[in-house]
Amino acid sequence: MKQMKKLTLWFAMALTLILMAGMGVCAESEVKTPTGVYQDGANSTGIRVKFVDAANCGPSNYEVQISTDKMNWQTVQADINSSFQATVKNLSTGRSYFVRLRARRQSTGEVSDWTQPYKVSTAPGNVSSPVTQTGAVTATAGTISWGPAVGATGYDIYCTSSLTENPTCIGTTTSTSYTLKNLSKDTAYIVTVMPYTDLNVGTVNQGYVYTAGISNVLTSGNSYLVRTLPEKVKNLYNFEWKANSKKITVAWQEGNVADGYELVFYNDKNKKVKTANVSFGTKAYNTHQCSKVKKNSFCKVKIRAYVTVGGKKFYSEYTKPIYCISNPKMTKGRQDNGYLSINWKKVNGATGYDIYIGRSNTKSAYKKVASVGKNKTSYVATKFKGSKITRYGKYYFYVVAKKKVKGKTYKSSVSSVYSYRK
Description:
By secondary structure, the protein is mainly β.
């Protein structure tokens, strides 16, 4: 009978222990220290750390302290429970601190040992003076510089040439300048300098604390539009040079990055008569008028683009000079049955003339009816498109002067069209 009572008592105790374990109840023991502390995030005035639960028996709170010298500690949080993370605010920008944690058993107030001090840092400040492009501008490289950021141990350089693409990190430096290489000619790059603090603790999570984001890079002080050297200007041409006028207007195709253009004009004696500057923001950014040429003659023009960096201009190559020639001045002619007499004044330097006739004043209606030599100043048309010229029919006409130089033919603009019938 006694043996039966012992077995019953043993069975009851075992069942109680099993039920206690199943219900999460355990015998209290020494309070364990948290482990796995690491910095999980930061901004310029705060840090966040995470840690691993100490697996203590019974509910626990966690206390967090912070120090600047590992000697003088201040409690910043004393009641962390199940989140296993702590956020510390109101800190200085770009400064390193130390944190430590310990667990406290709620039922008894017992505490664990402190963790070892763990180094953390707030994010560094922004650059102290804006990023600017400095030094010489080349076709494939550009240098930037900036003022140091508080608390930064280095700077990551982000770059993109597109407003629709995210920038990518192309390099890092510990100095306050950086040279971008292997760039494309005539291209603008949005370059952003991102200060960082290196905690030197050897893991990805613990290695770097960044300033917040790289959005709005065009308006922030840590970004700049870096430009390479412009390409040679394309499509320079004689836009308008009216008959009997001393004014010529030339035009060209705008480049991608140019701040402005420099043009040089030479008269019919190859003497430089004007050097002109057309800067960005002027009313006509891709045209220029020169009034230093001779009327009823020709001139020579060349152009180059430039970018301005640090108050200094950096130029592309000049284009090959183009020759511009004036429209011929028309003189009195006649229209009658069977013929249309077209007369003009000789243009100095012209090597020939083309004559165009149309029945309406639309571009597609005109047809070149003749080409004549440089000594000709008149042409008589008797037919147009197979039909005889009539006295009362309406005909439009114009004459184009030509100048041939080294196998290339330059032509006057079409700025004036004539007709003998209203």
